[in-house]
Hints:
The chain is of the alpha/beta class. It has 2 domains: 76 residues, dopa decarboxylase, N-terminal domain (Up-down Bundle), CATH 1.20.1340; 274 residues, Type I PLP-dependent aspartate aminotransferase-like (Major domain) (Aspartate Aminotransferase, domain 2), CATH 3.40.640. It has 13 helices and 9 strands. Helix 4 runs antiparallel to helix 13, helix 6 crosses helix 8 and helix 6 packs across helix 12. The relative contact order is 0.15.
Amino acid sequence: MNNDDFRQWSRRAADWGADYRNTLRDRPVRPLVEPGEIFRGIEVSPPEDAEPMDRIFADFEEKILPGMTHWQHPRFFAYFPANAAPVSVVAEYLVSAMAAQCMLWQTSPAATELETRTVDWMRQALGLPEGFSGVIQDSASSATLAAVLTMRERALDWQGNKQGLAGQARLRIYSSDQVHTSIDRAIWVSGIGEDNLVRIPVGGRFRAMDTAALEAAIIADREAGMLPAGIIACVGGTSTGGTDDIAAVAEVARRHGLYLHVDAAWAGSAMICPEYRHFWTGVEGADSIVFNPHKWLGAQFDCSIQFLRDPESHVRTLAIKPDYLKTHGHDGIINYSEWSVPLGRRFRALKLWFLLRAHGLESLRTMIRN
């Protein structure tokens, strides 16, 4: 594809996107297909010779589109609907066109510095205190995994990455049964093991962790020779909206020296409205907080912000610095690949920057309130 063809098909794709959005309400929300139907319609073997774009685009419309669930449909009410504002889509066009790999400052300085700025914009928008910094992860699952790995390393005096878990004290993580299943996966992947995720009883209108039971479990585990490492609290659990008393949980974490991660993946967006911040009173006591602008603010997937009260432990857990990843001649810069499990990173901050500027916080607050 030469540059003239690229221009033509880019315009065609943009026009198609606008027409698609304009006709969404005339389509069924879910595709009327049977399992395997799309698969059988795709050629069994890859083409040996180039095919014309007209044919490829036509096959997209005829073979792929009929099998799509339309997440931006006005009658889509599952999961997290209407989560890709048009301005966010436009920003993603630009990100795809530049196709930058944003793992280090030197691989795209603007991507790094815009991420730092937009994350701080969101810190201010949510009412978090100065001192919190953060990173845009792909999803809350990755943020939670990073938090659990940090809990593990802090508890093991930074020996888990080096020595593994064999022969180490048995680690314990605490949460309610209202947390997202990404917590279970983080426990599996980190090597801590599901049997060591201690489910604390819940109660009350918001299905909050019983903090007396939480403290009793921590004390009992210590007396049994186990090693409490961290607590995962939730604000707006996915299933029922379960919300812990963050101030009370944070106080337990402080007394016992445990790392506290708060999962506010979808409900966190509501905190741009000051009147909803009582749902996470005390959140400034957390070590790690995650919320997803791609669930309720209009940034399309993937865009998950993890705030960190002190990033040093987080980076110490995740950073690896071979020579080919060093930015020579510069000290004190941020390389966000050291803040994430994956090395490769997309330019996620651009769509958030476009979104916040095109809508403004007051418009986004109105959306949440209504």
